[in-house]
Amino acid sequence: MPGAWRLLGLGLALALAPPVQAVTTSTFQVSATIAAGCLVVGGVTAYGVLDFGTRSALATGVVGTSLGGTTVTFQCTPGVGLSMSLDGGQNSASGTRNLKRSGGTQLLAYQLYSDAAYSQALGIGSSVTVSYSDPNAIKLPVYGRTTLPGNLPAGTYTDVVQVTVTW
């Protein structure tokens, strides 16, 4: 067994060798990617209400209003381009948006605009840029105008317009 003893002795010699020096410092990379985008604050049930108010059936003249009620606010990464487009509504005909009398067929034409001066029309399906100064409190700029003819039957006139917001 002297040969076996030598193998054991050799094994002991290797086990008693000094340990290899381990690296105790190094580096690792840390990164994050911030994606540009927007957030609809408070969820979406409706973007607001465009209400021309209550008028006499005999009233004539131009009536204007702006998107109000509980309106939606958007928050966007600074510099994100936000745009919106509006369809013709449920009662559009021949390229004109119309309010329709509940329970009737009578129509009242109206126009939508992106500015309070009523100079920038929001055409059916046209996309327009939404400008903003505060990226944390963006409201949709929608203004409406109609001309009362003075001979409409009394009733409630309504329409529903679909808004598509993209960024």
What does this structure look like?
With 167 residues, the protein is mainly beta. It has one domain: Fimbrial-type adhesion domain (Immunoglobulin-like, Sandwich), CATH 2.60.40.1090. It is 8% helix and 31% strand. The protein has one helix and eleven strands, in the order αβββββββββββ. It has one helix at 2-15; strands at residues 38-41, 60-66, 73-76, 82-86, 97-101, 107-113, 127-130, 138-139, 143-149, 157-158, 163-166. Strands 2-9-6-5-10 form a five-stranded antiparallel sheet, with no helix packed on it. A hairpin with a 5-residue loop joins β5 and β6.
Helix and strand topology:
Elements: H1 2-15, E1 38-41, E2 60-66, E3 73-76, E4 82-86, E5 97-101, E6 107-113, E7 127-130, E8 138-139, E9 143-149, E10 157-158, E11 163-166
Antiparallel strand pairs: 1-3, 2-9, 3-8, 4-7, 4-11, 5-6, 5-10, 6-9
- β-sheet strand percentage: 25-35%
Order of helices and strands: HEEEEEEEEEEE
Say what oligomer this is: single chain
CATH architecture annotation name: Sandwich
Helix content: under 10%
Overall strand count: 11
Classify the fold: give the CATH topology.
Immunoglobulin-like
Structural class: mainly beta
Q: In angstroms, what separates the terminal alpha carbons?
A: 84 Å
Tell me the name of the CATH homologous superfamily.
Fimbrial-type adhesion domain
Cα-atom radius of gyration: 35 Å
> Unreliable runs, pLDDT <50, ≥5 residues?
3-14
The description of the largest β-sheet is: 5 strands, antiparallel
**How are the strands of the biggest sheet laid out side by side?**
2-9-6-5-10
Protein name: Spore coat U domain-containing protein
Keywords: Membrane, Signal, Transmembrane, Transmembrane helix
